[in-house]
Description:
Layout: H1 25-42, H2 54-62, H3 67-80, H4 88-91, H5 102-124, H6 127-132, H7 138-150, H8 202-218, H9 225-245
Helix pairs in contact: 1-3, 2-3, 3-5, 5-7, 5-8, 8-9
Amino acid sequence: CVSGFYSSFDAGALWEIGEGSGGDGAKQMVFLEQAIIAHAENFKIVSTFRLELEEMETLAVLWSIDVRDVRTIFLLAMYEFGKDGLLEDFWMTPGSRNGIDLARFVEDALGVACRRLHLILHVKRSGKVRSIFGLLDTETTEWVRDQAEFSVSLLDEDDDDDDEEGGVGTDGVEDDGTRRSRNSKKKRSRNNPSRQVLDVPVADTHVLVLRLMSMASSMGGEASKETRLKLHSLSILSGTLQKELEK
């Protein structure tokens, strides 16, 4: 075994775990998710853009975990840490959406966007925001507030929830084998403050929302009509905020 949790994120360290380390699937998923989040937290721009997820993707294969989860969790964590700018080169790469669970990414990244906008609209609510509130659609701003309060950050999920009603384990998988929404997970204790970064330029959030609109459109029937309509309304809201706040 590796000598410690954080040493497992060093180059080559994940190979020390070995295929035979076993453990149930829930614990393996939790370990892998924590490794991916730590990688995202420490990720810095490099000259040749690479996500550097090869070892974690290999470990996912060894543990029979969907490889798409690795890249999806990493990208979500990058947005949770407010590192939008580091992903621009990645998204411009042909085939960048390949290997991503688009349904999960759209759903969870939508929560990220709503929590960011909620901070601007309802938590900080500067004088300038108050002055333009009348320009914003009331139904959409209320929906943003509701989504922000309902959704749970990937960084704040309570890993110790396998006794939760409904038979859901730490890997976010129902007893019947279907993956549930990450946003249905419990929040961490108030004594363990969030690591998510919500105070980011509204322009970055607007770009994220536009990207989610494009993804939802490409998914066809996999993305509900309601989701596509909400994303459209959200794009108008974030675009208006960007335009007015940058004046």
